Amino acid sequence: MNRYCFCLQVKPDRLEEYVERHRDVWPEMQAALRDTGWHNYSLFLRDDGLLIGYVEAEDLEAAQKAMAATAVNARWQAEMTEFFTGIDGRPPDESFLLLPEIFHLQED
Asked: Minimal CA–CA distance to 72: which of 20, 102, 101, 33?
């Protein structure tokens, strides 16, 4: 399983609503993520809007492609696009800035 970390920028004036939307992610969206190979997926949000995501997948590109083929993802991304800056009209899940892993503490 590969580990991936990415960042995006949430509009500072939309932080509260963005957090609220993620308190109750649609069950069908969660199921689609699991079914398409997203594992141990977490989002972290700094108070200035910096969003950091972490996900494990065999192949993130394949997992993203599989999600893009689902109707629920199209609906979710359409609703989430308005919360972000710097994505030039692309869906947020196609706008990740992937961060290179430089250290990982191995378990004994």
From this structure: 33
The pLDDT of residue 108 is above 80: no
From the list 76, 80, 78, the residue with the least C-alpha distance to 10 is 80
Distance CA 12, CA 84 (A): 9
What CATH number should be reported for the domain holding residue 39? 3.30.70.100
Residue 104 a catalytic site member:
no
Question: Using CA atoms, how far apart are residues 99 and 37, in angstroms rounded to an integer?
Answer: 20
Q: What is the dihedral of CA 29, 31, 35, 39, to 10 degrees?
A: 90
Residues 36-50: pLDDT tens digits? Answer: 999 999 999 999 999
Q: What is the pTM of this model?
A: 0.91
Catalytic residue among 22, 65, 75, 90: 22
The domain of 49 spans: 2-99
